[in-house]
């Protein structure tokens, strides 16, 4: 019987069209992911194959997750079918065993689901063989790489989730529950992923039922080479995770078997529990129709009453039929969990300011609200037909549009209620975190204007599709299909919001600038799409089903009949509004402004390179002095400037042609103090060549006068310039002329380059290349400059530029500031800032410290000043004098999230640091650290910089990192610097995992920020640890004194590394090569540690460690090398905050397995090798073990460990 | 009031001809529409009830063009479809109140009285607060008629209301129907002859989309009285009798088969005369066409 039921289930499913639809869906998603580059996973610039085992696993994980949403339909329905079709009495009165019945249904569903999901494998393989597939990004088919992740992720999840859905189906036997399961499941997934992101990664990897966290955790440090060759091993945390959830699946199955009542009697009683006994009725009284005289009216008041009554009945039926309250509560839960983490910066929590909360609520709830809207739209449209009330309803004397209107009202009410609940949870979360500046108006605008407008559009569209579709299933399918297609269309480069359905240009709320210039595009685009959906709504009204003639001809005829006043007037009004607003938007975004999608700037960059690369390296004069007069008009988001550059021919040959680059189309006028003519004026690419009648002789100077201006008129279809804001203007020399072909404008990404027909990006010049030493890493048109300027702005704003303030005055209703750098030379790197600021001033010796901040963001200003003072202390003591008399920090809007060091001037984004709230001991102190980093740039960057060559970024960024780390170490102590080192290590290892070209050793770093920042901190700190702070700083000081303010030829990383080598004692010289010149990694682990008491009341600690040393190439392929290194061995007492190092010293490690004995004077708790993670180790968690003494020899490994599998 | 249906035709997209050039003239009072399943009764009812279009023909209710002015028709219409559902979790009180608003009874007090009155009259007052999902078939039908009666409709259409009801319920429902239909037109469609016989002063028999007979039930019976004969036969003889006589119906009586045939004269001595009833008229029309039918009266 089991066999029969099993085969019945399979055959039944094979006859269902939906089976094939699902299969085709999975097949095609996998198929396109492999065959079309833009759909597929990230190939890291072509380095990781799209069908590499890593990417195949990634696709499998996500496609399976997506597929789970559809699984209740298969598993739940397999049981429910008998109850829906009343065949259950047949089944349960025949001699079938419960085991066979449930077992057959479950196993049949499992097999069918596996078959459906196997579409993924077929799609992945088929995609590879398409003629249009990019074979360069695809590896040859390896069947195991396709099957292994399917087994590991898809099948285990089908079993686990299937059993769960089956259980719910078996226990409830109610269509609504089955149906709502998908929703609840989706919400659960959202919550889960949130939870996963807020608990330690290792734990998340263990408990994530979807395996997403497990996959990410296990592979988080995988390099390109590993991604191309390794599958996720069924071992360690991954294996435990899978076993855990298979266990849960088994449990669910058991519950289903035990809890399913297998007798018709019980089941029938269950189904009929609420019937009303009608036997004891009295005979009806005679009917007198005229007895009750009522007045019927069909005026507007009646219409309104009808609308309200319909709305009410829909709401009652929705609230009563679907566990709406559960859904709402889940939404609240999502927000509460999400709110806990809202807006972390690095690993630091921030104040839960309202815009972050609103952002968080929106991003977390959007999918949720979309699904609910889609779900209820289907329910509303199909409800009366579903319960067969349609004929009565349709013959009622109500206007046709009232149905659509009431559906829309209901959806809107549902949305408003949910959004309001979410908002309240957001407010509650803020209060819970002790933040009471609720700013309800931001919540209101974000949620009830912007988000609700989008949801209303979705409601209309969903109603429209369900009205057209012949059944609910198809309605939902169409809707989902269109949503997906829209994403796909955007991927394909159709980005304009004029046809990206319902889209409005991205915007960012800023505490400084409010909604600022985003108001106009947001409002107009929203109105545009509302008008469009108004038309859709009218069409929906015309197409509404009424009565029983539902063939196309009758429906068209009815639709035509309905196009009568006032419906037609409303429709035409919406259509006209749509066209007029569209025209206005078109005018603004295409005529007043140039429309640029993500492709057009790449095309421009490529064209620039193709046409003008030939001029690279041409002898050009260098800028030596800059004198500017800049007028900022914040209210118009514009500026205009006149300026004078003094240029000197520092080459040994005469120069006839001057090449001027105008990168932002801001150049208006240009002239020289000698006769010239413009021989090339390429406005599009901003390339100009001026020819002098008389060449500029070596050492001769040239005066260049120019006007530049930038206007922001109207609004754009995305891509608003972040530099210009009503409050918080910040732009730099990018808006001023640049001399000579500049490589910085070229495309860097290899795949983008190949799209444009360019070869791979060339390497930067080697530091050994003597020619390279003539150009600075900062700019090829200058070495050091003298700088002065006059900046003006609105009277209520302060305008700042590098230099000492000479004078401030008001003239013609504008506020002027004159700045002069005097004799102090600066790099050719300056910024202009204007905003309504609060100013806090302080002093350190003769240096004035100023922080210009928004009045809402006072939180960390004192901390920034403190960091500045401590930094000035440390840097002047160890590196040399500070060349300026002032240091200024200026907040700018969070449209850009960075802080940048200009001479004595640090624009600092409101998005980083200003709202940081480091309250827990594990939190990183971001404002303090970032300020230290930027201050250190005044030495490393503004006194020293290298040639335009590999490794030069290390001199600037790695040194700033080291400097900030040292100030921090003084602040928190060597024991607590660990968390910073761990953070740096993690970021470095993740960074190299995402490498798109090849990783370089740090002394040859090119464009790899994770190397120059995070590896930079690690290697410099390790060097300090090996040779000592004094020794290292003395060497740095010596190096700095030698090269500071130097002109070409510039210093290089070679020179720097040599200086470090010189400072290193001979026995440690090997570390220089390990740290700087190669990619060297270690794999340390503490195997076991025990202690015993000595008679003198001391403790002898025995530590067993294992150690490996590895060298990696640029793609991350590793090779073990001989180890003979000095490494920390440490013993600790206490735990957590009270942990204390009892012993910490370097020991020689010359064997892969070694044992050490150390005597300490207190009871030890933990011990290990390289406990502070000073060296680069991909498994940093297993360096320390807990220990116990006496007879017992217990050892624990801390955290979860993952081993890369052997190569396939 | 008169409902005049002329030359109504309807062919469904799947090719089924539901109505063939059908004409009827219906005046105030209860009108029975008799026909087997699939005769076109429901198509006709739905067309009158504004739920579907006709391909050809016209329907007028006095001066009101039913096919064109659907909105106006709906205002005076009470319609109980053959198969219908209700919101299962709502109470009778709630849903009836809702329908009353839909029918333009805006005044709250009036509506309350009306709903209560209807519930009493359909004998549902005691269960008015119970969920409709738990109602029995008869209760649901009575609730349906209560919905149809809201607003004192001039045109009431009741499609197969007694199908599936047990005899007690059916009786109760017919009593209910008998008490309405004094002011307006009530059209009752059914395939149960007794329904019509018991209730309607006028009726029409329709089959395959056409009207086979129209008139007063009694005169239709009178027209064939004396031409109906019965005989008890053995089972195996049935086929022979079926082909040689205009068989109206067969019944099993204590294991034997009794046939009733139509014949102007006694077919042979073994046939006994019987009193004709409406069922005989019905079967004669349905099975043997209109040519032998009672004359239209």
Q: How does this structure look, described?
A:
The complex is a heterodimer of chains A (1208) and B (297). With 1208 residues, chain A is α+β, with helices and mostly antiparallel strands. Among the domains of chain A are: 2-270, no CATH class; 301-592, no CATH class; 1080-1208, Immunoglobulin-like. Chain A is built from 34 helices and 28 strands. The radius of gyration of chain A is 35 Å and the shape is globular. Chain B has 297 residues and is of the alpha/beta class. Chain B has helices at residues 41-48, 70-75, 92-102, 108-121, 137-149, 167-178, 193-199, 217-224, 238-244, 278-288; strands at residues 2-11, 17-27, 29-34, 56-61, 64-65, 77-80, 155-159, 185-190, 202-207, 210-215, 228-233, 246-253, 256-262, 272-273. In chain B, 47% of the residues are buried. The model of chain B is unreliable at 290-297 (pLDDT under 50). The chains are: A alpha+beta (1208), B alpha/beta (297). At the A-B interface, helix 15, helix 18 and helix 23 of A face helix 2, strand 6, helix 3, helix 4 and helix 5 of B.
Blueprint (SSEs and pairs):
The complex is a heterodimer of chains A (1208) and B (297).
Chain A: H1 2-15, H2 17-35, H3 53-68, H4 71-84, H5 88-93, H6 98-117, H7 119-128, H8 143-172, H9 175-198, H10 201-207, H11 212-218, H12 224-229, H13 236-259, H14 264-271, H15 300-321, H16 324-341, H17 354-386, H18 390-394, H19 401-432, H20 440-468, H21 472-491, H22 519-543, H23 552-562, H24 567-592, H25 598-612, E1 622-633, E2 638-648, E3 655-661, E4 667-672, E5 676-682, E6 687-696, E7 701-710, E8 729-732, E9 738-739, H26 750-755, E10 782-793, E11 798-800, E12 804-811, E13 814-820, E14 831-835, E15 838-844, E16 847-853, H27 861-878, E17 886-892, E18 905-909, H28 926-936, H29 952-972, H30 978-993, H31 1009-1027, H32 1029-1043, H33 1053-1063, H34 1070-1077, E19 1080-1093, E20 1099-1112, E21 1118-1121, E22 1125-1133, E23 1140-1149, E24 1153-1160, E25 1166-1169, E26 1184-1186, E27 1188-1189, E28 1196-1197
Parallel strand pairs in A: 1-10, 16-17, 17-18, 19-27
Antiparallel strand pairs in A: 1-2, 2-7, 3-6, 3-9, 4-7, 5-6, 8-14, 10-13, 11-14, 12-13, 15-16, 19-20, 20-21, 20-24, 22-23, 22-25, 25-26, 26-28
Helix pairs in contact in A: 1-6, 2-6, 2-7, 3-8, 4-6, 4-8, 4-9, 6-8, 8-9, 8-13, 9-10, 9-16, 9-17, 10-11, 10-13, 15-19, 16-17, 16-19, 17-19, 17-20, 17-21, 19-20, 19-22, 20-21, 20-22, 22-23, 22-24, 27-28, 27-29, 28-29, 29-31, 30-31, 31-32, 31-34, 32-33
Chain B: E1 2-11, E2 17-27, E3 29-34, H1 41-48, E4 56-61, E5 64-65, H2 70-75, E6 77-80, H3 92-102, H4 108-121, H5 137-149, E7 155-159, H6 167-178, E8 185-190, H7 193-199, E9 202-207, E10 210-215, H8 217-224, E11 228-233, H9 238-244, E12 246-253, E13 256-262, E14 272-273, H10 278-288
Parallel strand pairs in B: 3-8, 3-9, 6-7, 7-8
Antiparallel strand pairs in B: 1-2, 1-4, 4-5, 9-10, 11-13, 11-14, 12-13
């Amino acid at each position: 019987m089991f066999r029969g039921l099993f085969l019945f289930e399979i055959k039944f499913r094979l006859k269902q069209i939906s089976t094939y639809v699902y299969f085709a869906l999975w097949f095609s998603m996998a198929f396109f992911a492999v065959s079309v580059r833009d759909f597929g996973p990230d190939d890291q610039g072509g380095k990781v194959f799209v069908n590499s085992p890593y990417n195949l696993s990634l696709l499998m994980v996500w496609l399976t997750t997506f597929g789970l949403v559809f699984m209740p339909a298969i598993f739940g329905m397999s049981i429910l079918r008998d109850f829906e079709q009343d065949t259950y009495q047949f089944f349960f009165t025949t001699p079938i065993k419960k085991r066979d019945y449930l077992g057959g249904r479950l196993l049949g569903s499992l097999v069918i689901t596996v078959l459906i999901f196997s579409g993924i494998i077929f799609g992945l393989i088929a995609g590879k063989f398409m003629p249009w597939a990019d074979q360069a990004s695809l590896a040859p088919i390896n069947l195991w790489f396709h099957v292994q992740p399917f087994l590991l992720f898809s099948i285990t999840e089908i079993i686990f989730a299937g059993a769960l859905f089956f259980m719910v189906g078996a226990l409830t036997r109610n269509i609504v529950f089955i149906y709502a399961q998908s929703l609840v499941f989706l919400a659960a997934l959202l919550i889960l992923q949130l939870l996963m992101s807020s608990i330690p990664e290792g734990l998340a990897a263990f408990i994530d039922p979807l395996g997403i966290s497990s996959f990410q955790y296990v592979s988080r440090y995988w390099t390109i080479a590993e991604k191309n060759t390794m599958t996720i091993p069924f071992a360690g945390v991954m294996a435990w995770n899978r076993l855990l959830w298979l266990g849960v699946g088994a449990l669910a199955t058991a519950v289903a078997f035990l809890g399913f009542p297998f007798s018709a009697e019980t089941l029938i009683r269950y189904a009929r529990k609420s019937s009303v006994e009608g036997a004891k009725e009295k005979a009806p009284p005679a009917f007198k129709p005229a007895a009750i005289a009522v007045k019927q009216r069909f005026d507007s008041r009646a219409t309104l009453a009808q609308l309200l009554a319909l709305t009410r009945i829909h709401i009652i039926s929705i609230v009563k039929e679907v566990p709406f309250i559960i859904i709402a509560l889940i939404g609240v839960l999502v927000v509460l969990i999400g709110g806990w983490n809202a807006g972390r910066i690095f690993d630091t929590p921030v104040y839960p300011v309202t815009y972050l909360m609103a952002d968080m609520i929106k991003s977390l709830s959007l999918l949720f609200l979309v699904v609910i809207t889609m779900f209820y739209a289907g329910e509303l449209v199909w409800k009366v037909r579903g319960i067969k009330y349609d004929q009565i309803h349709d013959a009622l004397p109500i206007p046709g549009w009232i149905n659509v209107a009431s559906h829309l009202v209901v959806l809107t009410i549902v949305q408003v209620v949910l959004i309001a609940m979410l908002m309240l949870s957001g407010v509650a979360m803020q209060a819970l975190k002790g933040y009471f500046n609720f700013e309800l108006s931001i919540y209101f605008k974000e949620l009830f204007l912007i988000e609700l407008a989008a949801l209303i559009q979705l409601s209309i569209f969903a109603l429209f599709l369900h009205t057209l579709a012949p059944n609910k299933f198809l309605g939902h399918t169409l809707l989902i299909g269109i949503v997906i297609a829209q994403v796909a269309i955007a991927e394909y480069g159709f980005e304009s919001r004029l046809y990206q359905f319902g889209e409005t240009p991205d915007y960012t709320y800023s505490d400084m600038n409010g909604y600022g210039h985003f108001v106009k595009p947001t409002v107009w685009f929203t109105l545009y799409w509302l008008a469009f959906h108004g038309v859709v709504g009218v069409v929906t009204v015309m197409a509404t089903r009424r009565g029983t003639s539902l063939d196309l001809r009758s429906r068209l005829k009815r639709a035509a009949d309905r196009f009568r006043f006032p419906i037609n007037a409303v429709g035409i009004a919406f259509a006209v509004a749509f066209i007029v607003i569209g025209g206005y938007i078109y005018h603004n975004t295409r005529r007043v402004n140039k429309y640029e999608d993500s492709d057009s700037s790449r095309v421009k960059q490529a064209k620039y390179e193709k046409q003008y690369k030939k001029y690279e390296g041409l002898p050009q004069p260098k800028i030596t002095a800059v004198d500017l007069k800049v007028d900022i008009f914040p209210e118009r988001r514009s500026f205009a400037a006149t300026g004078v550059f003094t240029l000197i021919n520092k080459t040994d040959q005469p120069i006839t042609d001057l090449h001027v680059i105008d990168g932002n189309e801001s150049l208006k006028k240009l002239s020289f103090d000698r006769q010239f003519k413009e021989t090339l004026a390429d406005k599009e690419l901003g390339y100009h060549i001026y020819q002098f009648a008389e060449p500029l002789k070596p050492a001769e100077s040239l005066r260049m006068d120019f006007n530049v201006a930038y206007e922001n008129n109207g609004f754009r279809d995305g891509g608003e310039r972040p530099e210009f804001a009503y409050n918080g203007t910040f732009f730099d020399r990018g808006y001023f002329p640049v001399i000579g072909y500049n490589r910085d404008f070229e495309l860097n990404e290899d795949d983008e380059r190949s799209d444009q027909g360019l070869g791979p990006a060339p390497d930067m010049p080697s530091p050994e290349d003597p020619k390279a030493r003539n150009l600075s890493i900062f700019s090829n048109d200058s070495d050091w400059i003298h700088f002065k300027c006059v900046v003006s702005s609105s009277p209520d704003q302060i305008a700042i530029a590098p230099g000492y303030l000479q004078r401030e005055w008001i003239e013609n209703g504008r506020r002027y500031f004159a700045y002069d750098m005097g004799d102090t030379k600066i790099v050719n790197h300056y910024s202009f800032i204007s905003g309504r600021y609060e100013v806090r001033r302080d002093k350190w010796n003769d240096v004035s410290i100023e922080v210009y901040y928004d009045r809402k963001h006072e939180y960390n200003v004192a901390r920034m000043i403190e960091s500045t003072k401590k930094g000035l202390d440390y840097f002047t003591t160890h590196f040399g004098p500070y060349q300026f008399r002032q240091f200024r920090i200026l907040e700018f809007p969070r449209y850009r999230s960075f802080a940048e060091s200009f001479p004595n001037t640090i624009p600092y984004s409101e998005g980083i640091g200003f709202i940081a709230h480091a309250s827990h001991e594990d939190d990183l102190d971001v404002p303090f650290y970032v300020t230290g980093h930027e201050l250190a740039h005044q030495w490393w960057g503004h006194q020293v910089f290298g040639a335009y060559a590999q490794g030069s970024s290390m001199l600037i960024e790695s040194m700033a990192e080291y400097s900030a780390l040292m100030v921090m170490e003084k602040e928190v102590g060597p024991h607590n610097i660990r968390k910073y080192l761990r953070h740096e290590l993690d970021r470095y290892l993740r960074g190299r995992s995402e490498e798109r070209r090849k990783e370089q050793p740090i002394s040859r770093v090119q464009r790899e920020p994770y190397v120059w920042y995070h590896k930079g901190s690690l290697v410099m700190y390790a060097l300090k640890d090996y040779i000592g702070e004094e020794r290292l700083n003395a060497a740095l000081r010596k190096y700095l004194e030698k090269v500071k303010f130097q002109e070409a030829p510039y210093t290089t990383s070679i020179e720097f590394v040599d200086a470090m080598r010189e400072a290193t004692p001979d026995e440690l010289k090997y570390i220089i090569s390990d740290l700087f010149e190669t990619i060297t990694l270690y794999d340390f682990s503490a195997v076991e540690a025990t202690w015993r008491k000595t008679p003198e009341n001391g403790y002898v600690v025995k530590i067993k460690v294992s150690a490996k040393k590895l060298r990696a190439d640029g793609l991350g392929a590793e090779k073990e090398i001989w180890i003979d290194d000095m490494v920390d061995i440490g013993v600790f007492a206490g735990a957590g905050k009270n942990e204390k190092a009892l012993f910490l010293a370097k020991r020689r490690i010359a064997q892969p397995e070694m044992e050490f004995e150390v005597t300490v004077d207190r009871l030890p708790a933990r011990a290990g090798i390289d406990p502070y993670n000073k060296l680069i180790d991909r498994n940093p968690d297993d360096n320390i073990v807990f220990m116990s003494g006496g007879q017992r020899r217990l050892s624990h490994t801390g955290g979860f460990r993952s081993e890369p599998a052997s190569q396939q | 009031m008169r409902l005049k249906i002329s030359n109504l035709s309807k062919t469904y997209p799947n090719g089924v001809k539901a109505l063939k050039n059908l004409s009827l003239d219906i005046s105030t009072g209860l009108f029975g529409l008799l026909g087997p399943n699939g005769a076109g009764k429901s198509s006709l009812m739905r067309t009158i009830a504004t739920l579907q279009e006709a391909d050809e023909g016209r329907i007028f209710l006095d001066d009101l063009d039913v096919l064109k002015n659907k909105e106006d028709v709906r205002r005076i219409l009470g319609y109980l479809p053959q198969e219908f559902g209700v919101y299962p979790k709502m109470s009778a009180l709630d849903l009836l109140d809702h329908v009353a608003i839909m029918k333009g009874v805006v005044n709250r007090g009036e509506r309350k009285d009306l709903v209560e009155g209807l519930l009493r009259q359909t004998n549902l007052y005691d269960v008015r607060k119970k969920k409709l999902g738990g109602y029995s078939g008869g209760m649901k039908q009575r609730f349906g008629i209560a919905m149809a009666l809201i607003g004192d409709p001039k045109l009431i259409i009741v499609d197969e209301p007694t199908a599936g009801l047990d005899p007690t319920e059916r009786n109760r429902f017919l009593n209910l129907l008998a008490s309405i239909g004094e002011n307006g037109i009530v059209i009752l469609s059914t395939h149960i002859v007794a329904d019509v016989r018991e209730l309607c002063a006028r009726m029409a028999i329709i089959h395959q989309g056409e009207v086979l007979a129209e008139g007063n039930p009694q005169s239709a019976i009178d027209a064939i009285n004396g031409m109906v004969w019965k005989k008890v036969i053995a089972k195996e003889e049935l086929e022979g009798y079926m082909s040689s006589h205009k068989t109206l119906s067969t019944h099993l009586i204590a294991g034997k088969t009794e046939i009733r045939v139509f014949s102007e004269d006694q077919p042979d001595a073994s046939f006994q005369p019987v009193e004709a009833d409406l069922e005989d008229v019905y079967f004669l029309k349905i099975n043997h066409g209109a040519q032998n039918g009672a004359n239209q009266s």
